[in-house]
C-alpha cells in the first residue's frame, strides 16, 4: 500500500489548534475518530497508544516535522492524519526549535510492512527542502492535499 | 507444454493482497509453461535503519519490527508453499534483507531469473519521485521482462478452477 492510499482530505487539519504535545496527539486522533465515526472509548484507546509510544522517545525531527505512530488492532488499512500548526509546538525535537508539521500514522498491527513503507515514504518526501517549504506555507487542507496529489 | 521465452520466474511477495494475487498468477503460469518458480520476501532492513537514524523509530521498535517482518516473511512464504503444493508445483522460497528493489534485482541476477511477476503497480497520482513505491522501482529497473498482475477476482476464480 502506498502513502497516497492512506491520505484523505477529511484527515488533514490546517491550522491545528493545540499548543502542546498531548494536545496535538489528541487533536489528530480526534480528526481520525470523527472521520471514521469511532466511539469515545476507541478514540481514547488510540490516543493512549500514540501518547505511550511518543513518551518512549519523540518522533520529532530537526526539520520541523514529527511522525507519531502506533500499531492499532482491528484497522482495515493504514491511515495518515496530517496537521500543520501555525506556531512551533514543543514536541521533543533535538534542536528544541519546535515542530509545525505532524503526520500521525495509524497502521494495522498485523501488517508491519505497510507500517514501515508509509513511515519511510513520509520521511523521504519530507527530506526535500522544496516539499517542506511548500508544506509549511500551506494555508488550507486543500493546499496540503494537492501537494501530494499534484 | 508450450515453448516459452522464460525458464525461471520470480514472484516478489510483500504481504499485500496484490502480491498474493501475483503469486497465484505465477503458480498458474509456471504450471502451464513448465518454468521454475521462486518466491522472494525482502525484510526491509534499509527502511528500518533509515527510520532509526531519523529518530522516527527507537531501538526497541527496530528489534520489534525486525521480528515482525521476519514472522511476516515466514507466514507468507509458507502460504506460497501451500498454494504451490495445492497445484502440485515445486516452488523455491527465500527471504533476504535489505532494500526491496535492490535485493530483488540482486536475487534475479544471481539466480538467472528471466521473468519477474509483480502485484499491482500504483496508479500514477503524483509526479513526486519521493512517493514512488518499491514495485514501481522494480518495474523500471528490472533487467528482464515483467508481468504486472491485475484483476483480483478473475485470478482467484481461475486459481480455484484449475
Please characterize this protein's 3D structure.
- By secondary structure, chain A is α/β, with parallel strands linked by helices.
- Chain A has a single domain, classed as Mannitol-specific EII, Chain A (3-Layer(aba) Sandwich).
- Chain A is 45% helix and 23% strand.
- Chain A is built from six helices and five strands; from the N terminus they run αβααββββααα.
- In chain A, strands 1, 2, 3, 4 and 5 form a five-stranded mixed β-sheet that branches.
- Chain A is globular, with a radius of gyration of 14 Å.
- Chain B has 162 residues and is α/β, with parallel strands linked by helices.
- Chain B has one domain: Rossmann fold (3-Layer(aba) Sandwich).
- Helix content of chain B is 51%, strand content 17%.
- Chain B is built from six helices and five strands.
- A five-stranded parallel β-sheet of chain B has the order 3-2-1-4-5, with helices on both faces.
- In chain B, strand 4, helix 5 and strand 5 form a beta-alpha-beta unit.
- In chain B, helix 2 runs antiparallel to helix 3 and helix 4 runs parallel beside helix 5.
- The longest helix of chain B is centred in the middle third of the chain and has 28 residues.
- Chain B starts with 7 loop residues before the first strand and ends with a helix.
- The model of chain B has no long low-confidence stretch (mean pLDDT 90).
- The chains are: A alpha/beta (150), B alpha/beta (162).
- Chains A and B meet through helix 4 of A and helix 2 and helix 3 of B.
CATH top level of chain B is: Alpha Beta
Q: For the terminal residues of chain B, how far apart are their CA atoms?
A: 16 Å
Q: Into how many domains do the coordinates of chain A divide?
A: 1
Class by alpha and beta content of chain B:
alpha/beta
Strand content of chain B: 15-25%
CATH topology of chain A: Mannitol-specific EII, Chain A
Radius of gyration from the alpha-carbon trace of chain B, in angstroms: 16 Å
The CATH superfamily of chain B is identified as HUPs
Number of helices of chain A: 6
Low-confidence stretches of chain A: none
**Extended strand count of chain A:** 5
Q: β content of chain A, as a range? A: 15-25%
Give the biggest beta sheet of chain A: 5 strands, mixed
Oligomer: heterodimer
Give the C-alpha Rg of chain A: 14 Å
Secondary-structure element pattern of chain B, one letter each:
EHEHHEHEHEH
CATH class category name of chain A: Alpha Beta
